[in-house]
Amino acid sequence: MAHNTGPTAEPSSARPASSDHPDSTPTRIAFVCVQNAGRSQMAYAFAQRELEQRGLADDIELLTGGTRPTDHVHEEVVDAMADVGIDVSGRTPREITFEEIRSSDYVITMGCSAEDVCPAGWAGENCDWGLDDPDGESSSAVARIRDEIERRVRGLFEELDTSPPER
C-alpha cells in the first residue's frame, strides 16, 4: 500500500523524465478525489497550466479521476476557476482505474483517501492534501480552496522541476 505523507506533503524524490533520454518515460501524476467534480478538477487544471508554463509537457503526464465520479463539475468550481481565467465548464468527471493508479508515480488525493483504488504493493507516492470539499460552499470559501490548490500544485511542480537527477 502506498504511504500517506501527510496533509501538506509534497513529493520528495522524483525528477521528471528528460526528453534528452528517449528511453525514459514521463513522470505520471494522478489527481484523485471521490466525485472528480471539484478539487481534483481544479488541481488538474492548474497542473496543466504549470506544464505549459514550464515546458514540461514531454516530461510529465497528468490524469484525474474519481472513485465514484458524478456527472458534472460542480458549478461553484466552474465559477471559481473562471475567476482566474481557467475554463473547466466542458470537463466531465471520470472514474480512475486500478491500472491508472498503478502506473502513476504520484497519486495526489484531495482529502478523501483513495485507498479503495490504490492496489496493494503499489510503490508510488500518495500525498493527501486534506482539502475541504467545495461542493455547496460559498464563492469565497471555494476561492480559498482554489487558491490553496493552486499553491500546492505550484509547490509540487517546483519540487519536481528542481529535484536533482536520480543516479
Structure description:
The chain is of the alpha/beta class. The chain has helices spanning 39-54, 75-82, 98-102, 139-162, and strands at residues 27-33, 60-66, 106-109, 125-128. The two termini are 25 Å apart.
Strands, total number: 4
Cα separation of the termini: 25 Å
Largest beta-sheet details: 4 strands, parallel
Taking all Cα atoms into account, the compactness measure Rg is 15 Å
Number of helices: 4
- Secondary structure class reads alpha/beta
Percent in helix: 25-40%
What labels describe this entry?
single chain; 167 residues; disordered N terminus; 4-stranded parallel beta sheet; alpha/beta; 4 strands
Quick structural overview:
With 167 residues, the protein is of the alpha/beta class.
Give the topology, please:
Layout: E1 27-33, H1 39-54, E2 60-66, H2 75-82, H3 98-102, E3 106-109, E4 125-128, H4 139-162
Parallel strand pairs: 1-2, 1-3, 3-4
Helix pairs in contact: 1-4, 2-4
